[in-house]
Amino acid sequence: MASNPPAQCCTVGVKHEGEPTGTTIKVGQYDAYVAEPKGKKHEGAALLYVPDVFGIWQNSQLMADQFAANGYYTIIVDIFNGDALSLERPKDFDLKKWLTQGSDGKNPHTKEAVDPIVELSLKYLKEQGFTKVGAVGYCFGAKYVVRHYKDGIKVGYVAHPSFVDEDELAAITGPLSIAAAETDEIFPTEKRHKSEEILAKVGQPYQINLYSGVVHGFSVRCDTSKKIERWSKEQAFLQAVAWFDEHLL
C-alpha cells in the first residue's frame, strides 16, 4: 500500500472562518457544491474536488471557492451519500465501521460505493463541456483521484493521502502532485519514499512536497491561528494551483 488506511487523525481538525460563495446543485441523486470563477476563467478547465471524510462542509467549500478564484470551475460531489462526518462525534465512534457500513449500517463508504459517484461526477463535467479535467483529493479523497485517471482525470493533486494502493498509484496516466506532512502516520516516511519510487517508474511528471511542523490533514483542517500551520496550508494550496496551471492548461 502506498499510504495506510484512514485512522483517527483523519477525523480531527479545525473549522475555518469565511463565507462560502458557491451554489448547491444535484449531480444525479447526489448533492454537490459548485464554485465558479467570477473573473478570469480557464476555458474548458474544471477541477473535481474529492474531499476528506468531512465531505462538503465549510472548509472544503472555502477551498473550492479559492480554486474558482484562480480561474477553475470547481465541484465537490457528496461521495458519502449524505453521511459525511462532523467534527463532533461520540468518544466511542468506530471509524472502521463507518467506512465499511456507514452510520446506519446500510451506507458503506468503500470503493464499491464511492467509485460510481466519482465516475458520475466526471461524466457530469464532460457533459458540461469541460475538456481539461483535473482533480484534487484530500486524505480519504486522494485514493479516488489516483483511481480515476482512467475515467477522464488528466492531472491530479493529493494532500496527505490515505488508503492508496501501490498498484493504483502505478496505474496513473497523467501528472500527479503530492503535498505531505512531516508527521503523518497514514503517509509516513517509508510510504512517501515508496510512492516516489513508484512514480519514478511510472514516467509521468510528479512532485512531492514535504511540509515541516504539520500533521496529517494540515492542508484542509489545520489551526490557522498557528503561523507554521497557516503558512503550510497556504503553500500547499499554491502548490496545487501551480501544478494545474502548468500541466492542465
UniProtKB/TrEMBL annotation:
Residues 31-247 form the Dienelactone hydrolase domain. GO terms for molecular function: hydrolase activity. It holds the Pfam family DLH. InterPro entries: AB_hydrolase_fold, Dienelactn_hydro. This is Alpha/beta-hydrolase.
